[in-house]
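testing teh design pipeline on a random one, pls ignore if ur not involved
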């Protein structure tokens, strides 16, 4: 018994006050709500009383329920950093029934039963299929050291159920059989077994008997998710403090669950288009001559690139908001010259402020009490790059406001975007802040136990708000390493310090798919691996994958040789160039995909299990994913491979490289020589492409190309357009084009509708029709015949961008 205790109760004191707590074992006393006693109805919510707990159940929408439990009858102020303050509640109508054994709360799609005997919950759909069911249900354990409780919910599970999302977790895409922890950690050189990692997204999606749902545990305390690891018939999630507060979101389509979750925690703003271009980074490019040479190399070698990142060595002694004047004597001039050549400059800003009495940022922070303090009031001191530092309390709105103001100098120097790092927060030696560090938490004072997981997000928020303050009508761009649910309102993310190995190429694929299923589509990995040196083949395969990741950046630690594309043999360089060019050619499609994410929360990447949950074979696959709604990507992740096995879900698919048509729901072996990664376009799609460019606004194309993949039924594809950099689209200056393909098996047509006031400068569309059976007798564009050519089984012709109807006559 004594032995067992030692195993289950582990505390690893790092230094005074800083404990890494593990979940305490089952031998500790568990407390339960007891029997249901009474209830009280209110308009949108009801309170249900048990012997020892109260449940507040709110109807957020017909398919979204919110559960809050209190053990003493009092609820905390219902504040959350995750929920979008702009979120508007949906239809909150419900029907209520008090039956002998249970209470039934009914919306138009859900039936929620609360059982009287033990206060457990069961949620069914309107066909009485069980979606989620409590096992032990809500219970708690006392948190003896810090006060409060460890609050736990245990649901029924089975090895057949699938679990996805949960942020940046590594390992298998399906989380069933694993236990995961959310406590943002600087995990340099992490691997498939590492947990926790950088980000804290306490949202998972579940698939049970074909029914998709999601649970968002809205707690910023350290949280845990046990997906059938401890007991395969149970799923538990718990928080080491605060109250049990979670949202249940029903699909049944998983994509709808992710969209609803994204709406709840906030949509991403539209980024400037250049942020979707290719980024080049290293720790660190300096001095100025190196940066200029880097830029020249991109242009002279004709490798498209929009952004150059400056890592910590641009600063004076790692003091944030300063420049090293020897290395960068005239940053404004350098940035403006780079800009003329089509490059945007991004700089890194970390949270640690150097303790230096002559440094204004330090002085202001001390003077206004913006820095985090320990429990007795002393400022918390921790060492990072600059040596001993203090750290702003980003949960204090005044400190955020101050921080935002600090960007005025960098923005006036011409800096276009900011990269926030080390914001887990990371501290050398100790790992992070001690638990007793105090936080403002928006007027809900607390210790670091509650603020740790939101610290990075609030830093990114303050940074984003700073850029917004000084960017005028231009859009802002930030990147963050740490994140909490809702980070997408403020920032893009990257997956941190990965390694130059084939395994990490796979990890990057999983992480980006998982992040996209967690409301965070604007994500990418350090291409080529941050630590170590990839060979030409690995780098090429990574570039190929990242061409289809919304954030596309090569970054490396710099200790292990350089990772600019031209560091690799010409054979690789030409393929790398070709793929970066393809990224730019696909920009209209990618930009539209972003807009669909920003507007509707539609994930930009979709694992095929997410997009095709009813095709059960997809549930066993994890490398194939949809990029946007129309292109299926299957990266090559094995060294030396020239072909690979992959699965195509239901539907008809056209090989992007060969135009070969494959009927889906089939496993195939597809050619994948080094210069190709398997790409398939869904039939019925219209993929809009532009000419290759060296950067997003190098020139205005005269025509865009519509690659029409002939439909077999009626299909609609969207194209979104605006100026790509200003906020004029918010005032109506955008256009949505809809391309509608129709066929009855004999006749075929493509029509276009347009909505909005933005007029892109191009005048015409070059149409390339793929996978069209036969040759039309004539093609009529708005009733006028046009000349067309037939080339390699494709039909090509040009139309005005204002066309409304194209008819193919057979
Ligand atoms: C951290 C970051 C890495 C950066 C380095 C120096 O390790 O994750 O991207 O290059 O710090 O700033």
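output:
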């Amino acid at each position: 018994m004594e032995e067992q205790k030692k195993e289950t109760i582990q505390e690893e004191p790092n230094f005074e006050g800083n404990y890494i707590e593990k979940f305490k074992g089952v031998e500790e006393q568990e407390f339960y709500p007891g029997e249901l006693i009474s209830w009280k109805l209110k308009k949108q919510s009801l309170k249900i009383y048990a012997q020892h707990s109260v449940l507040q159940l709110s109807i957020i929408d017909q398919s979204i329920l919110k559960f809050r439990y209190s053990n003493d009858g009092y609820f905390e102020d219902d504040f959350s950093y995750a929920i979008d303050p702009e979120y508007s509640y949906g239809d909150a109508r419900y029907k209520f029934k008090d039956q002998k054994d249970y209470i039934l709360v009914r919306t138009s799609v859900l039936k929620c039963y609360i059982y009287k005997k033990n206060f457990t919950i069961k949620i069914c759909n309107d066909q009485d299929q069980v979606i989620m069911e409590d096992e032990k249900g809500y219970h708690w354990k006392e948190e003896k050291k810090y006060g409060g409780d460890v609050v736990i919910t245990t649901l029924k599970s089975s090895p057949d159920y699938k679990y996805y999302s949960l942020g940046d977790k590594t390992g298998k895409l399906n989380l069933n059989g694993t236990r995961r922890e959310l406590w943002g950690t600087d995990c340099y050189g992490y691997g498939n077994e590492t947990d926790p990692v950088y980000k804290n997204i306490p949202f998972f999606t579940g698939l049970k008997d074909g029914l998709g749902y999601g649970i968002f545990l809205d707690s910023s305390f350290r949280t845990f998710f046990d997906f059938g690891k401890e007991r395969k018939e149970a799923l538990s999630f718990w928080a080491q403090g605060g109250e049990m507060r979670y949202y249940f979101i029903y699909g049944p389509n998983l994509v709808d669950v992710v969209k609803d979750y994204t709406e709840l925690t906030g949509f991403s703003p539209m980024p400037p288009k250049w942020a979707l271009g290719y980024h080049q980074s290293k720790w660190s490019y300096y001095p100025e001559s190196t940066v200029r040479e880097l830029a020249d190399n991109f242009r002279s070698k004709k490798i498209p690139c929009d952004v150059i990142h400056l890592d910590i060595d641009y600063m004076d002694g790692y003091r944030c908001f300063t420049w090293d004047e020897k290395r960068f004597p005239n940053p404004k001039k350098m940035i403006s010259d780079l800009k003329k050549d089509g490059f945007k400059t991004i700089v890194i800003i970390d949270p640690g402020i150097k303790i230096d009495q002559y440094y204004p940022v330090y002085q202001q922070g001390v003077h206004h009490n913006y820095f985090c303090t320990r429990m007795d009031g002393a400022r918390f001191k921790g060492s990072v790059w600059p040596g001993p530092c203090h750290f702003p309390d980003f949960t204090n709105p005044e400190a955020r406001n101050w921080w935002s103001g600090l960007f005025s100098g960098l923005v006036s120097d011409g800096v276009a975007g900011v990269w926030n790092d080390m914001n887990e927060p990371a501290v050398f030696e100790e790992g992070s802040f001690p638990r007793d560090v105090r936080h403002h938490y928006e007027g809900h004072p607390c210790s670091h136990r509650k603020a740790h997981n939101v610290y990075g997000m609030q830093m990114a928020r303050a940074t984003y708000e700073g850029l917004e303050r000084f960017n005028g009508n231009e859009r802002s761009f930030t990147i963050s390493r740490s994140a909490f649910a809702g980070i997408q309102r403020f920032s893009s993310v990257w997956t941190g310090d990965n390694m130059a190995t084939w395994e990490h190429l796979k990890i990057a694929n999983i992480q980006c798919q998982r992040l996209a299923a967690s409301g965070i589509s604007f994500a990418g990995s350090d291409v080529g691996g941050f630590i170590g040196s990839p060979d030409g083949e690995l780098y090429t395969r990574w570039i190929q994958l990242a061409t289809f990741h919304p954030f596309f950046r090569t970054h490396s630690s710099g200790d292990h040789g350089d990772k600019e594309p031209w560091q690799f043999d010409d054979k690789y360089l030409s393929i790398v160039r070709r793929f970066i060019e393809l990224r730019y050619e696909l920009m209209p499609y990618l930009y539209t995909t972003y807009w669909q994410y920003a507007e509707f929360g539609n994930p930009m990447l979709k694992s095929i299990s997410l997009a095709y949950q009813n095709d059960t074979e997809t549930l066993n696959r994890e490398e194939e994913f949809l990029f946007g709604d129309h292109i299926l990507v299957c990266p090559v992740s094995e060294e030396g491979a020239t072909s690979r096995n992959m699965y195509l879900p239901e539907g008809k698919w056209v090989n992007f490289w060969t135009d070969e048509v494959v009927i889906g729901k089939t496993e195939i072996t597809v050619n994948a020589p080094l210069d190709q990664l398997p790409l398939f376009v869904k039939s019925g799609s219209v993929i809009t492409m532009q000419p290759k460019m060296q950067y997003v606004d190098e020139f205005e194309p005269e025509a865009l190309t519509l690659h029409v993949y002939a439909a077999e039924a009626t299909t609609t594809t969207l194209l979104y357009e605006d100026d790509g950099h200003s906020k004029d689209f918010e005032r109506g200056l955008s256009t949505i084009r809809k391309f509608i393909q129709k066929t009855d098996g004999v006749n075929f047509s493509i029509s276009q509708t347009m909505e909005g006031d933005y007029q892109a400068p191009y005048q015409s569309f070059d149409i390339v029709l793929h996978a069209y059976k036969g040759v039309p007798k004539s093609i009529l564009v708005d009733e006028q015949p046009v000349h067309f050519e037939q080339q390699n089984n494709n039909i090509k012709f040009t139309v005005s961008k204002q066309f409304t109807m194209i008819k193919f006559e057979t």
